[in-house]
Amino acid sequence: MHFISLVKFNFLIPFITALLIGSIISSTDPATLVPIFNKIKVKDKVSQTVISESAFNDATGAILTSAIVTILLSGKFSLTQNIWDLSIMIIVGSLVGCITGIVLLKLVNDKPYGVFKDFAPIISILSVIIAYEIATKFGGSGYMACFIVGIVTGNKKNFKIWLSQKSYDADFYVAETLGTLCRMAIFIILGSQVELVVLSKYFLPSLLVVLAFIFIIRP
Fold first, then answer.
1. How far apart are CA 166 and CA 161, in angstroms?
2. Rounded to a whole number, what is the largest CA-CA distance in the chain?
3. What is the DSSP string of 140-163?
């Protein structure tokens, strides 16, 4: 809330616009944290707590951003309606992600019904795409659905999904490679959206917000 107030008074913009900015940049980036914890020896309890908080926060931030954009575009605000819409996005996204992840990953199980057990990486990718499409089709959050699929994929044994060592290794290496490519793509896209003319015009207000965010609000 302090950050939103800072943005509002620093840029002289409406509160709802400042709230949108806050929802966009409030999320930490799990894609950056995971490689760090893979290289640095940290207690599992600490690393998993930080990664879990970051992942849930990221998915929630995406949902909150979508909700605020909807309010801005419609020009209307109803507390009960917006809470309802937000709840639907979270619940539908979570259910679709869980069901899609379990059903499709069962097909790569090292059991007789695992008809696609030799195509584990492909099914993992398809499960994310399908979950996103189905969730958005029914008014849920595609990002939350993808996040839940990721939880299922990363905890296969807890869902009684057993992969052969060959399939597990292939799935792991493909996920690592795609993760690296996606992180590169994210920063390329972010960099391509920076307009130097606009940045120079609002350099000092932007610098103040960035410094406050890094050193005070969320160090």
1. 14
2. 64
3. --HHHHHHHHHHHHHTGGGGT---
Joined tokens for residue 180? 């690296």
Q: Domain containing 198: what range?
A: 2-217
For 39-73, the pLDDT digits (tens) are 777 777 777 677 777 777 777 777 778 778 878 88
Q: How far lies 211's CA from each of 61, 67, 76, 202, 204, in Å?
A: 21, 27, 33, 14, 10
- From CA 48, how far away is CA 110, in angstroms rounded? 28
How much is the pLDDT for 91?
A: 92
Distance in angstroms (rounded) separating the CA atoms of residues 108 and 131: 17
Task: Give the end-to-end CA distance of the chain in Å, rounded to a whole number.
Answer: 15
Total of domains in the chain:
1
Instruction: Take residue 128 and report the two structure tokens written for it.
Output: 């994310």
* Torsion sign, CA atoms 102, 34, 188, 139: positive
In the structure encoding, which two tokens stand for residue 57, read together? 């926060």
CB 108 within 8 A of CB 163: yes
Residues in the chain: 219
Q: Are 108 and 116 in contact (CB under 8 A)?
A: yes
Q: Residue 202: enclosing H or E segment and its boundaries?
A: none
pLDDT digits (tens, 9 = 90+) for 150-192: 888 878 778 777 777 888 888 888 888 888 888 788 889 888 8
Write down the pLDDT at residue 4. Answer: 54
Higher pLDDT residue, 86 or 37? 86
Two structure tokens written together for 173:
């290496």
